[in-house]
Structures are given as C-alpha cells and as structure tokens.
Amino acid sequence: MSASTPDPADPVFRLHLGGKMAVASTVPLTSREDLSLAYTPGVARVCEAIAADPDLADDYTWVSHTVAVVTDGSAVLGLGNIGPRAAMPVMEGKAVLFKQFAGVDAVPVCLDTQDVDEIVATVRALAPSFGGINLEDISAPRCFEVERRLDEALPIPVFHDDQHGTAIVVLAALRNAAALLNRKLGDLRVAVSGAGAAGVAVTKMLIAGGVNPDQVVVCDSKGIIGRHRELTGTKAELAETTNAEGRQGGITEALRDADVLVGVSGGQIPEAAVAGMAPGGIVFALANPTPEVHPEVAARHVAVVATGRSDYPNQINNVLAFPGVFRGALDARATRITDGMKVAAADAIANVVAESLTAEAIVPSPLDPRVAPAVAEAVAEAARRDGVARR
Question: In a 10 Å sphere around its CB, with 0-12 CB exposed, 13-18 middle and 19+ buried, how is residue 99 labelled?
Fold first, then answer.
C-alpha cells in the first residue's frame, strides 16, 4: 500500500475520517419559542436593524469572531500545487487550530481557480460573511498581489500566514536568540536563503523589528539579490533595500562572516557555507520536513539552532502567531493588520519565555496556553495605537 493510499489502520487516516470540524449551534432549539427567536419571525427584526446599520453585524452575527481560511491549493505544505480538494485537510487543520488556541471560528474556503483576478473577486464577494481573511498556501509571486489587492479593497484584516506568520515567529525567535547571546538586533549580519513568500516577509519583518537593512543579504535560487541583477517586483525592492555591500555569488558568499542564517527556501546548504559564518552564530533552518542544513550539523558551528520541525528544539511554528493575531485584530475590530501589530505579536511571543531562555528554548512551545492571549492583547493594543481599531 502506497503512502497516499488510505489505510484504515493508520491513525492519521482514522483521525481525518469524516473531516476534523463541524458546525455547532450556540442557541437552544428545543421549542416553538426557540424557533421563533432564532429564525422566523424574530430573525427579521435583526436583519432590519443590520440593514439600517451594517456595523451591527459585528454584534448580532458570528462575523466578529469568524475568519475565512482561503487557499487555491497552489503551494500546500511541501507538496506543491496539489489543488483545492487535496488542500482541504490542511485548511481544516488550520481552522481547528484557530478554535483551539484562540477561540476564533474559521471556515475553510478552497477555491477552484488560480487566477488572481478570480481569487480577489471571489474573496471580496464572500467577505461580508467574515471578520477577517486568512490567506493560506497560495504560491508566490501571486500571493503578494492577492494580499495587496484584498487589503486595499476590504475593511477587514487580510493576512497571508505563509508570509507573515512565519515572519512574526522568526522575529520573536531572533529577539530571544540575540538576547541570550548578548547581541543587539541592529548589529547582526543576516543572510536569508529564499526569496519567495516567506523569505520576502521575513526580511521585511526583521527590518521592521530592528535589523539594519544594510546588514541583510537575501539569496534566491540564482544567488545573491542585489543591484547587479535585473529583477522585478518584490525582488527588485529587496535589491534596493538590502545588500549594501554589493555582495555577489551564492549562499556561501552570503554566509561569509554572517551572524544569522534564516533558511526558508527548501534548498540544501553545504556545511562548509555554515562554517564560514561568524563565531557564535544563529541558524534558523526552517524548510520542512528537511531543513536546509541538518540541526546537528549546524550545531557544530553556531550557538543557537532552530527548525520548523517539532522533533528538534526551537520549533518556528506559525501556530505561535496566527491565532493570537486574529484574536487581537477581531477584538479590536481592526480594519487591517499593520506592521506595528506584527511587531507587537513578535514581542509578545518572545516575552513569554524571555525570563527562562536557553539555547534549546528561545521560543515557547506551540502548546503553551500563555501565547495566544498574550499575542491577542498586544495586537489589539497595537491596532489602537496605529489607528486601525474600531473599538
């Protein structure tokens, strides 16, 4: 039996049988009076009130605590472009994580189109049913345009988790790794391996959080990004804002004397390249399931190692970020998610374990119940500071 063939004895398939979520009523429906209040005729009064004042939908429907988890199935986990049906188990999983960790109700929406215009139009049409939009597993570079256009068009938060969730947790982890090593973010020389959705967002988030852009070098599959290359879109922006030294070459040249490696590419990095880093360095090898450099290999040359895996210390896991980010944004009834809200989320994650740092524990466990409430409170406060909160 192949790995993709359902095996009734396999606990993974047993767990997923029938799906991982369901809809439950929050009101009683046991009498005629219950029906008259929850449905006709009583419901008409609520509809009329919302028609007169659309903002009342936040108070009298599920909108204020519900997000859509939207994908086109084009970049699912490490599986690639497997389409909307095959993406559904991941979207269901995302939805139950929202509920478990932050009490946010989430609905998987798997779209049978990979056309940017169609995705944007469909999500815009669906948006009145939700308080926020979590974009998921949409391939780069289309994901950048989808998020930008929806963010501009909708009065509710839009958040591409593959970009920003990863970036928030990376910033939190780097804050604590630097603190552990008595370093300042602004002094760190950082190499980012990967210039897709996560790589671009991580780079921008680190800079927003205090890393000096002149000290950042980003690599894609063709080598170091800089003004020496003809580039367009987000990569052209990176070329203008990073690599102040004008480095050229590949990841080995990018890592020479670097203090930090953030791997979000999936490509393998040779040990010799890691050995060229500055002493006492930091490696975040986040490709999953196979890190860019094996953690035990990286540990020969650096002081702190993190991965995207749960079977090694320091798992950089998006679940540390997205439930609390949306909980906070919904609580503040934010119209969008700002850079300030993302940085606040990273600070909150870092602070959960700031008093007990070790090289093997620079971020909280994904199961730590303190994380989502701390992130939610910080994000809501930042939304109010940034002027995007409606309460």
Answer: middle
For the question of residue 39 being annotated catalytic, the response is yes
Q: What would the pLDDT profile of 77-124 be if each residue is shown by its tens digit? A: 878 899 999 999 999 999 999 999 999 999 999 999 999 999 999 999
Nearest Cα neighbor of 104 from 65, 155, 160 is 65
- Which residue matches tokens 């979590």? 134
Fold category of 11-156 in CATH: Rossmann fold (3.40.50)
Output phi, psi for 114, to 5 deg.
-120, 20
CATH 3.40.50.10380 residue ranges in the chain? 11-156
Q: Where in the chain is the domain with CATH 3.40.50.720?
A: 161-391
Is position 312 annotated as part of the catalytic site?
no
Of 20, 94, 204, 312, the active-site residue reads 94
DSSP 256: T
Residue range 161-391, CATH number:
3.40.50.720
Q: For residues 311 and 283, give the distance between their C-alpha atoms in angstroms, rounded to a whole number.
A: 16
Model pTM score: 0.92
DSSP per position, 217-251:
EEEETTEE-STTS---HHHHHHHHHS-TT---SSH
